[in-house]
Specification:
Pfam families: Lysine_decarbox. InterPro entries: LOG (IPR005269), LOG_fam (IPR031100). This is LOG family protein YvdD. One of its GO terms (molecular function) is hydrolase activity, hydrolyzing N-glycosyl compounds. It comes from bioreactor metagenome. This protein is an alpha/beta fold. The chain has a single domain, classed as Rossmann fold (3-Layer(aba) Sandwich). It has 6 helices and 6 strands, in the order αβαββαβαβαβα. Strands 1-2-3 form a 3-stranded parallel beta sheet. The protein has a 3-stranded parallel beta sheet with strand order 4-5-6, sandwiched between helices. α1 packs parallel to α2 (39-50) and α1 (11-26) packs across α6.
């Protein structure tokens, strides 16, 4: 899950984030997120926990401070920097849910779309378009495709929805398609680790 860390936004965004988290947990899906306590990140994490779900936070070392990091993570992974944070979140995730957010969220969202486009990932991207927040970005993405800067097939990587229920429902339908590749990759990674341990 990607989303804003700012809490000064309209309450509707925070409520939608909380609902999205609760819906994920209600479907027995855990959440990997940026580990933040505030904003939409914190709201979504609290939504997951309200339904007894699991949250894994991935936070850069410089942000791992009381009040900034979400204290109720089932696991909090601390990374050296932002780049390794994103890589870790990507490796742990079977799909992505992008909530409204600022520059960091926009970067994360566009990165996973690009990685899917280039074949480095095979994971669906669901965009929660609360209050039409992403309307302008979605128009720009359509412009990229319409003017031949991007292959039209890339339109299938992501899907936007106006409500948490619709965004989560689409993601849950799309995730099973990506699971086999993720499981195969995990088995390969485990095999490589075991082989290296045997050699050393």
């Amino acid at each position: 899950m990607f989303g804003a860390s700012c809490s000064k936004v309209d309450r509707a965004y925070l409520d939608a984030a909380y609902e999205a988290g609760a819906l994920l947990a209600g479907a027995c899906v855990g959440m990997v997120f940026g580990g933040g306590n505030t904003g939409l990140m914190g709201a979504a994490a609290r939504g997951v926990k309200s339904q007894g779900g699991e949250v894994i936070g991935v936070i850069p070392e410089r942000l791992n401070q009381p009040g900034i990091a979400f204290a109720d993570c089932d696991e909090l992974i601390v990374t050296p920097d932002m780049h390794s944070r994103k890589a870790k979140m990507e490796s742990l995730s079977f799909g992505f849910l992008a909530l409204p957010g600022g520059f960091g969220t926009l970067e994360e969202l566009l990165e996973v779309i690009t990685l899917n486009q280039l074949g480095y990932l095979s994971t669906p991207v669901s965009i929660l378009n609360t209050n039409g927040y992403y309307d302008a970005l979605l128009t720009q993405l359509d412009t990229c495709i319409g003017q031949a800067f991007t292959d039209p097939a890339c339109r299938g990587i992501y899907q936007a929805a106006d409500t948490p229920a619709a965004a989560v429902a689409w993601l849950l339908r799309a995730i099973p398609v990506t699971l086999p590749n993720k499981i195969k990759d995990a088995i390969k990674d485990d095999k490589r680790i075991r082989e290296n341990e045997t050699k050393s």
